Amino acid sequence: xxxxxxxxxxxxxxxxxxxxxxxxxxxxxxxxxxxxxxxxxxxxxxxxxxxxxxxxxxxxxxxxxxxxxxxxxxxxxxxxxxxxxxxxxxxxxxxxxxxxxxxxxxxxxxxxxxxxxxxxxxxxxxxxxxxxxxxxxxxxxxxxxxxxxxxxxxxxxxxxxxxxxxxxxxxxxxxxxxxxxxxxxxxxxxxxxxxxxxxxxxxxxxxxxxxxxxxxxxxxxxxxxxxxxxxxxxxxxxxxxxxxxxxxxxxxxxxxxxxxxxxxxxxxxxxxxxxxxxxxxxxxxxxxxxxxxxxxxxxxxxxxxxxxxxxxxxxxxxxxxxxxxxxxxxxxxxxxxxxxxxxxxxxxxxxxxxxxxxxxxxxxxxxxxxxxxxxxxxxxxxxxxxxxxxxxxxxxxxxxxxxxxxxxxxxxxxxxxxxxxxxxxxxxxxxxxxxxxxxxxxxxxxxxxxxxxxxxxxxxxxxxxxxxxxxxxxxxxxxxxxxxxxxxxxxxxxxxxxxxxxxxxxxxxxxxxxxxxxxxxxxxxxxxxxxxxxxxxxxxxxxxxxxxxxxxxxxxx
Length: 557
Known about the structure:
Strand 2 (62-65) and strand 3 (68-78) form a beta hairpin. By secondary structure, this protein is α/β, with parallel strands linked by helices. The strands form five sheets. The protein has a seven-stranded mixed β-barrel with strand order 1-4-3-2-8-5-9. A seven-stranded mixed β-barrel has the order 10-13-12-11-17-14-18. Helix content is 32%, strand content 28%. The longest helix has 33 residues, at 444-476.
């Protein structure tokens, strides 16, 4: 066939629409409607971030709220940095209103904790994720999965406050919050602030006890059982049985304090280690003084009391207080160990300003006030500082002369100074050491040499005494000394015979008795003559006048 014989086909478009296209178009429309309906019924897709995926399985783990299924986990993957787990969950459309900013999610599984055994229903059904909706109106689709169940729902009536402490060993999430021993709340959350190096706690106090929280309440740790052996003695604190096992937080108003204004959610408070520290922290107005002790400060600790005549007026702030000086050890040798104390205005009387306190202390120092160390507890050796008065002018003048260099140091440190003196125990110790030094300086060797010589002389004397005893023994056994008792017996017999010659009944005794009777008669006869001569001395030469008869005296009228 030649090229001329080849014919060219003519193409023309068909302008008439074919009914066959109705079927695919309907299928496309049905598919789009089904796809739209599917996405409309699926609900929101959530992203949950967790530290691990223990007990969570894709397309199996359910999300529940009040035991009702509201969603399901669709995928579980690691994050890009491989440090976290990303959980995708598809929620039901009807619960979109529950997905707001303050909603909370956590995994429910069997656990044994301080609150008891929880999650036993998951032993057969498996772990699930619990949803606790919040009250915020802001929607959210990205959440952090909580490690444990929160203590109270976000919409629970009550108040949440923040506590901050430097040391809270023994306190954990779930521990009770107590008011005078009664449980009114729970510790919800804890977090360590790395910048401030403090632990921060969020606690929840349920209604109606939230009205007890005011600006003047104080929070402290309740360890159940605690004791403190310090300069003030042994203090024992026994709390409730709940805190005895698990610990907790207590709060209350201090005695004599007003309640103050109510606080808002999120208010911050300091968490004290115990109730005693709360009482010490009540005195925020104080004046700091610097002391120098020329003796050992072993047993004096920060927090020890400062007393005046048995009444606490302050607290020891720092022992030792080495401020910014070039040679602290040399200063300690020359001036003493520096100690910083606080004299607190609130411990003296109300409405006392710092200025008035300084003026009164300056007057007291001028009158001889000084600080001394006193033993507070003989068992532990704890010390405290006592402020005492000594009005002796000599003592006051000696203090003024000794404190010149110490005042320069205290002024350079920026603190006023109080004078100090040695304590009584220190003086006794010093006197004992002085006595020991005197005993040590005694000429012991010379005394021993003299004692040796004395012993030798005594030995010679004893030998001489032994010879003398032998001589006396020989004298006593001699015949001459034996004859002496017989001669003495003969002399006694002669003396007895002589005395018998003048005894009653003997002739000599009778003659002597007769002579004495005659002499007595003569004296009786001579007595009238002597009376007459006494009345009339010339009666021997002239006749004596006859005396008138004596007349009796008349009776008085």
